[in-house]
Amino acid sequence: MQSIIKNSLLVQSEHFSEFQTRECKFYQVPDYLYGWRRASNMTSFLGAIIVSKVALNDPKYHTSKVDYNELGPASIHSKQFN
């Protein structure tokens, strides 16, 4: 898989600049997603889950069960991305 990505995605771009990175890192699927390890048809979804877990790890983006039970789906809209 790494060689396929290296040969097809990391070839020199026409729009390459000094600000674009040319590195691609591979990580293992986290232990909490163990049941999804063999789901190759869901790789983009798994990638989005992992990126969102890293990017949105701030508690201000979380909705607790208590908040959801009190406000319902409207509790999701109370979280603002500033």
TrEMBL record:
Domain of life: Eukaryota
Protein name as it appears in the record: Uncharacterized protein
Organism (species): Smittium culicis
